[in-house]
Recover the amino acids of this structure.
């Protein structure tokens, strides 16, 4: 739930080859809605209105990845009910869709 409120992440950008326009084009469908993305087989990409917002995004993304890795080792993460996910996304939108 904290990841949805802080980052709004709900997807991984499909893999695209590095070093060309394909990688940039793969990110375009997620702009400007998302400020933190996981680029398939590349890593994280975060941005914001300030350097501090972008840094907070990377730190929160790394923290969430660590928690999910531990959860996987303990039997797997459990999903929230769809109604709760929708409520969290609506609350994030009310907060301004910025990285917290």
């Amino acid at each position: 739930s904290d990841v949805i409120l802080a980052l709004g992440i709900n997807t991984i950008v499909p893999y695209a080859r590095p070093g060309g326009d394909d990688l940039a084009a793969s990110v375009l469908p997620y702009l400007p809605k998302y400020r933190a993305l996981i680029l398939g087989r590349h890593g994280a990409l975060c941005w914001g209105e300030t350097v501090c917002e972008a840094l907070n995004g990377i730190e929160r993304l790394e923290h969430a990845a660590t928690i999910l890795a531990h959860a996987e080792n303990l039997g797997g993460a459990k999903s929230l009910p769809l109604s709760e996910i929708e409520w969290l996304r609506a609350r994030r939108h009310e907060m301004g869709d910025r990285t917290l």
Strands lie at 12-13, 36-39, 43-46. The mean pLDDT is 88. The helical segments are 2-6, 21-27, 51-73, 82-95.
